[in-house]
Amino acid sequence: MKYDALIVGAGFAGAVCAERFAAAGKRVLIIDKRSHIGGNAFDCHDENGVLIHPYGPHIFHTSGKRIFEYLSNFTDWRPYEHRVLAHVDGELYPIPINRTTINRLYDLDLDEQGVTAYLESVREPRDSVATSEDVVLSSVGHDLCEKFFRGYTQKQWGLDLSELSAGVAARIPTRANDDDRYFTDAFQFMPAQGYTSMFEKMLEHPNIEVRLSEDFRAIRSIVEREHTIYTGPIDAYFDFRFGKLPYRSLFFQHEHLGEVERFQQTGTINYPNDQEYTRITEFKHLTGQQHSGTSIVREYPRAEGDPYYPIPRPENEALFKRYHELAEATPDVTFVGRLAQYRYYNMDQVVGAALKAAEELIE
After folding, report:
1. 162 and 17 fall within a common domain
2. C-beta separation of 136 from 164 below 8 A
3. Pairing of strands 187-191, 91-95
4. Neighbouring C-beta atoms of residue 60, cutoff 10 Å
5. pTM
6. Interatomic CA distance for residues 79 and 188, integer angstroms
7. How many domains does the chain have?
8. Same domain, 27 and 76
9. Among 102, 214, 330, 340, which one is most buried in terms of CB atoms within 10 A?
10. Is 91 helix (H, G, I), strand (E, B) or coil?
11. pLDDT for 123-164, tens place per residue?
C-alpha cells in the first residue's frame, strides 16, 4: 500500500502530525520502535494498579489556547497545578525561589518589596549573560546559587552551570511573592484518563495505521510514501555522518509503597545537593487517583542510554546546524520534535511545532 505519509515516532510530534494528516483525508502509517504509543509521555498502571509515568513525570501546562483546545478534542482534563519543594540542609523549601523560600531560609520576615530589595543586594550582575551561571548569579547571588542550582545542574547535565548555555537556567523564574506553583501558564491540567488514552483517541482515525516495535531502518526503503515525517534523533537519521549529538539520559527507579497514602508533601521534591538522584515524584499528586498505596519514581541522570535532553552548549548547536543543513536539503522529509530539532521543548511546544509542520505540509 502507498501512504501519503510515513511518520516515525508515535509521541506527541508524530501523533499530532498523524491526526492532522488523517483529518485532511490522507493515508498515514505511523511507526514506533517501542511496543507502545505516546513516546516518553506514555502512562500505564503498574502491577499494583497505580497510574504511573514510566519515563518520568509529564505535567501538561501551556499558555497557548489553540494548543489546549486542540488536545481537548481527545481528552477531558483534571485541573492540576504542580508544586515542587527542594531538599536543602535537611529542610524543604519552595522552588522556584519565592518569598517563603527567602524568609524561611534566612529567618527573615520580608514583604514582596523587601524580598526584591534583598535579591538586589545579593545578586552579582554580569556585563554579559552567556552561561547559566551568569543567569543564576545575576538573579539570586552566590549562596542561593550553591544551595539550589549548582549541585542540581551538575547532576542533571554532568556539567557545571558555567558550561551550560544561559537558556537552561532562564527557564526557572525567581519570585518575590508567595506563588509556589512551578508553572504560571494559563492552562494547567492533566489528561483525566491519562496520556495513553489521549494518544489512543488521536490515533484511532481509520486513515491511520499504527505499527509498534518497528525499526525505521528496517522499513525505510520498503514503505512506499509521498513524504516522511521524522521525530527521532536527527543525527541517527543521517547515520551520524558528522558524529553523535550529545544528549543526557535518565534512569528511573520506580517503587510502590503499600498502605502508604502519601509519601511526600508535593508532586515532586528536588534534591540539589543530597543523593545521587535529582528528584522524587509521587504520581498520585499528579493524577488525583485514589489508592490505598502509592507509587514513586527516583530519577538518576546519566550520560548513556536513550536520548532525553539535548545538551544546550554552543558547540552542540554548531554540530546540530550541520545536520539541519542536511535536513533542509532533504525536501521529502520533515523533521519535527525535541530530538529531530535538537531543542529542549516542553510538551506544548512540541504540539505547537507539529501542528505548524502538518499544516504547512497539508497546504
Report:
1. no
2. no
3. unpaired
4. 27
5. 0.95
6. 6
7. 2
8. yes
9. 340
10. strand
11. 999 988 999 999 999 999 999 999 999 999 999 999 999 999
